[in-house]
Design a protein that fits this description.
This protein is an alpha+beta fold. Among the domains are: 136 residues, Jelly Rolls (Sandwich); 118 residues, Roll (CBS-domain), CATH 3.10.580; 139 residues, Four Helix Bundle (Hemerythrin (Met), subunit A) (Up-down Bundle). The protein has 24 helices and 21 strands. The protein has a 4-stranded antiparallel beta sheet. It has a 4-stranded antiparallel beta sheet with strand order 2-7-4-5, with no helix packed on it. A 4-stranded mixed beta sheet has the order 9-10-11-12. Strand 13, helix 10 and strand 14 form a beta-alpha-beta unit. The mean pLDDT is 86. Keywords: CBS domain. One of its GO terms (molecular function) is [protein-PII] uridylyltransferase activity. This is CBS domain-containing protein. It holds the Pfam family DUF294.
Length: 636
């Protein structure tokens, strides 16, 4: 082959490799070296490429075309749950080549396959030349995650930059249709409408929908209450005439300038004909700027109304988006969301304590589920309960009624602040979840001693509890009692492990992923049910089997691993995998909510980029390893 043909071949090889990680970030001279030293090999469909019987692996392969089936040695060929496929751009037998040992898996050509092959000697030279490849081979998942976070940061930074600039058009700031009344509307009607719609201003428009006045919350005291104006007077008698307005095409800076020049807190947006299109408030402009943790905490701590807390809950979401844009990991973001939501919940509890007499009762507000694990995402509902002490001199029924009345108001306020009421009624206002310490212990004991399906389902929700407010020692006593029940009950742990194996990682033999067959959601994977749950359920079993009191999934894995003789590297890979699934959920939920939808967990793998698809596949492989450990430990 002449030089020009060789150069074309090397150039084509490099062009192919640059489409896949880690080669897309490899140093130019190292990539050139790789392109010059690989050879293209062919394996027909059904051919055995690598297996334990082929001896020490001396060739590193990169799949160029076709698919390769990977199956652990010793497992039957019909065991689809334990198999996975490799596609173009994926390298294999990295660990075996690096360690100069036999493979522990069997690699078979699922269809006609072409591979770029590199001898072990050349592979080691390449590792020396390329720090990118070296990191990738020694910390495979961590390397991919780093690359994914960089891409995510670029994507969200652009979005946040657009969202937080004062050049944003008013059309991008205004998210609600304006609420307006006619000039002859009674004052009482206008004020009631403001309260019911949770708005701070009422716009008064004429018959052509052109604004002629504005009436705000501050006007109620100054212009109605103190002067003693009758509430049946028309709103035009107390409104501010000639409100400031701007064209709908103006930007946030124009609105801020108008507010500063004229000393007003609201600016109206109108179309070319002067008709009302929306209202921009001082608050809207504030949210364009970077929302800080201190400001949010101050807002929550000083809040005297649910309306103020609702605004704070929106700031929590905005700040969480900023953290995504800065490349903060999913573990930190979910804990951050949970921590601020905890603070908000506590403030709601404090506001309601002023309305209810709970004097003399020792009680604790408990969180369950994702909040109990410090793992809340953007889309979360309520999962809470109460534990209390009922002494011999107290009337148990009356004590519970007092707590239930209080809990109903707290649950209602949480719902108003963006935490929807639980459809399964897992809320403190449910009498079955507002129990004495002895009743909770008895309930837990029943579930552990008779682990039928409903009891196992309950344990996956309620055993992940955490105290939020009140006497925290009551929750500690519950935790100690629960661990005493589970550590000496191998039957319950075995049943709980079996329950964790009911859902398998959605890895396919022909396609990379097994997606939902539901015609309403074709081609999607529910990353809560088929992703996060795989790690959460396994970690719960490990924690209860090894007396780990933590409820957070990552902490359960980290604390259980040494007790189970799992190496730090293996534990880190599992944690990385779980955090990536959580990150995908956060990204998807945010994207859904920006489109005005209620954010779900249904991700379409075909829409992911190559790096994220690769990591998601590896994440599911890590989940499979956890499940294999459960099978081994509990002989399932």
């Amino acid at each position: 082959m002449n030089n020009s043909a060789t150069e074309l071949l090397v150039s084509a090889t490099i062009e192919f490799l640059q489409s896949y990680p880690p080669f897309d970030r490899m140093e130019p001279d190292a990539l050139q070296f790789l392109g010059e030293n690989v050879r293209l090999a062919y394996y027909p469909q059904g051919a055995l490429i690598v297996s334990p019987e082929t001896g020490v692996v001396r060739i590193f392969r990169i799949l160029q075309r076709g698919k390769v089936l990977v199956r652990r040695a010793g497992e039957g060929s019909g065991n689809e749950q334990s198999a996975l496929t490799l596609g173009p751009g994926e390298g294999f037998s990295i660990g075996s080549v690096a360690a100069q040992r036999s493979s522990t898996s069997i690699y078979t050509a699922l269809e006609d396959v072409f591979c770029y092959e590199l001898t072990a000697e050349t592979f080691f030279l390449l590792m020396h030349k390329s720090s990118v490849l070296n990191l990738f081979c020694t910390q495979y998942l961590a390397s991919l995650l780093s690359q994914s976070r960089q891409q995510l940061q670029q994507q969200f930074s652009q979005h946040v930059a657009e969202q937080q600039t004062m050049n944003s058009p008013l059309s991008s700031i205004i998210h609600k249709d304006p609420v307006s009344v006619s000039p002859d509307t009674p004052i009482k009607v206008a004020i009631e409408l403001m309260a019911n719609r949770n708005i701070g201003s009422m716009i008064i428009v004429d018959a052509e929908q052109q604004p002629v006045g504005i009436f705000t919350h501050s006007d109620v005291l100054k212009r109605v209450v103190l002067p003693g104006i009758p509430l049946d007077n028309p709103i035009q008698s107390v409104m501010t005439h000639y409100p400031r307005s701007l064209p709908f095409a103006a930007n946030a800076y124009d609105a801020a300038l108008a507010m500063a020049k004229h000393g007003v807190r609201h600016v109206l947006a109108v179309d070319e004909g002067g008709c009302l299109k929306g209202v921009v408030s001082e608050r809207d402009l504030f949210t364009l700027q970077r929302v800080g943790l201190r400001q949010i905490r101050q807002t929550i701590d000083s809040a005297t109304s649910i309306e103020m807390l609702l605004l704070a809950s929106k700031d929590v979401r905005q700040l969480s988006l900023n953290m995504l844009a800065q490349g903060v990991g999913a573990e930190q973001i979910t804990q951050f969301i949970s921590a601020l939501n905890d603070t908000l919940t506590r403030r709601i509890i404090e506001i309601n304590l002023d309305k209810h007499d709970l004097y003399g009762i020792e009680w604790t507000w408990l969180s369950f589920g994702s909040e109990g694990r410090d793992e809340q995402t953007f889309s979360t509902d309520q999962d809470n309960g109460i534990v209390y002490i009922c002494t011999d001199i107290m009337d148990r029924e009356q004590t519970q009624l007092r707590l239930l009345e209080f809990a109903r108001d707290v649950n209602a306020d949480l719902d108003q602040c963006g935490f929807p009421s639980c459809t399964g009624n897992i809320m403190a206002s449910n009498p079955n979840l507002c129990l004495t310490l002895e009743e909770w212990d008895e309930k837990f004991a029943q579930w552990v001693s008779a682990p039928e399906p409903q009891a196992l389902l309950n344990s996956t929700i309620f055993f992940d509890f955490r105290p939020l407010y009140g006497k925290f020692n009551l929750a500690s006593r519950m935790r100690l009692s629960l661990l005493r029940l589970t550590r000496n009950n191998p039957l319950f742990l075995r049943m709980l492990a079996g329950n964790a194996l009911c859902v398998l990682p959605p890895l396919g033999m022909i396609r990379d992923f097994v997606t939902d067959a539901d015609p309403e959601h074709p081609g999607t994977i529910d990353l809560k049910k088929y992703g996060a749950r795989l790690f959460i359920d396994a970690a719960r079993v490990f924690a209860m089997g090894y007396d780990v009191s933590a409820t957070n999934t990552v902490q359960r894995i980290k604390q259980s691993a040494p007790l189970m003789n799992i190496s730090p590297d293996e534990a880190a890979a599992v944690v990385d995998a779980f955090n990536f699934v959580q990150l995908l959920r956060l990204r998807h939920q945010h994207a859904e909510q920006t489109q005005g939808r209620s954010g779900d967990n249904l991700v379409r793998p075909d829409d992911l980029n190559e790096v994220d698809r690769r990591i998601l596949k590896e994440a599911f492989r890590q989940a499979r390893k956890l499940q294999q450990r459960l099978k081994l430990d509990y002989k399932l």
